Amino acid sequence: MRPLLPRRCRRGGPGGILTYSADRLWEEVVYVAYYLHWSADSVLDLEHPARQRVIEEIGRINKKISAADGQNE
Fold first, then answer.
1. Which of 13, 37, 52, 54 is 20 to 30 A off residue 31, Cα-Cα?
2. Cα–Cα distance for residue pair 19/31, rounded to 1 Å
3. Quick one: DSSP state of residue 72?
4. Under 8 Å CB-to-CB from 12, ≥6 apart: which residues?
5. Is residue 7 pLDDT above 60, yes or no?
6. CA contacts within 13 A on the Cβ side of 58
7. How far apart are CA 35 and CA 59, in angstroms?
8. More confident: 68 or 7
9. Where are the alpha helices (DSSP H) in the chain?
10. How many alpha carbons fall within 13 Å on the CB side of residue 42?
């Protein structure tokens, strides 16, 4: 039997299941849908790690565009 972690070290609910806030999920859906013109259903069909990767890549692209725009002024 595994020893229990001290209460301050435990995360998530019973069984180690982490919940994901509905507000946060919708922020991600809208962000991806806006930039890639995907439907909400298409974004929701992505597994969480894939959706996070898409969000990171959109952020990188936006930073590059912003940096280029700053150089052209």
1. 13
2. 20
3. T
4. 18, 19
5. no
6. 16
7. 10
8. 68
9. 22-36, 40-44, 48-71
10. 10
Record the tokens describing residue 32, joined without a space. 């991806």
Question: Which amino acid does the sequence have at 22?
Answer: A
Locate tokens 């959706």: which residue? 51
Which tokens hold the place of 9?
């070290």
For residue 14, the one-letter residue type is P
Closest by CA to 35, choosing from 67, 60, 69, 70, is: 60
Q: Model confidence over 14-59: pLDDT tens digits?
A: 555 567 788 999 999 999 999 999 999 999 999 999 999 999 999 9
Asked if 56 contacts 35 with a C-beta cutoff of 8 angstroms, the reply is no
